[in-house]
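Hi! If you just cloned this repository, the fastest way to understand the data is to look at a raw example. We've pasted two of them here, unedited. The first protein comes first, obviously.
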Amino acid sequence: MKTGACGSFFGQKMADKYGWDLKQAELTGMKTLPVDCVFDGYCEFPLSYMDLTQGDYFTEENEDA
């Protein structure tokens, strides 16, 4: 894998958007995942803005296996 300015740019853009600390960004050469990023600390995407009130999403019981 190559580290490049393009990978750093897109990784930093995501870090800025979500408030994460970017440690490393590498170009993968793959079309589906062009940049592989490593972030430091707790990194989680925010909850979805999808309307989940339709259907049985809230009626299912939690299953902690």
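Ok, and the second one:
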Amino acid sequence: MAMTLPNPVISFTGILSKLTPKPRRRAQAVRRAAATTTRLVPALFGPADRPQTAFIECPAWCAADHMDRMEHFDDIDHYSERVNVAHVHSFTLDWDHSELESFISADPAANDERIRQTHIRFGDGSGEDAYLTADDADQLADEFIRFAARLRDQAAIVRAHKAGQ
């Protein structure tokens, strides 16, 4: 009697689909964790000759060291690690032409209610950041995906043209 083995491609694909995280589940887990997780951290307040330490509530995503400088209580803001989206290097320059970055931010004492709420700041190194809601950031990410596809198309055209020269 002949023994048949399972098709390795189908088996591998089945295993891979179980191991590959589902984007929707991952996003739900991230939202759930971010919404409910805070911690108490020390913060330094007051004049340099009479510093005071107090514990403040801080979001889990906050990377700020609130002990690194003296602050007034209403100067406390929260920000995440910066994500560098792109360093655009030009072969005609000795430095990066531009840099794109984003980070999560909240400024509890801001005059603008939208800036008091958790949001995303997006910058290009110019010093003037764009303030984005989660939906704005999703739309921007979709635009980056379309941009990346067009940029790859342009690179393919340049390669093909250079090959023909």
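That's it. A detail worth noticing about the second one: The CA atoms of residues 48 and 70 lie 7 Å apart.
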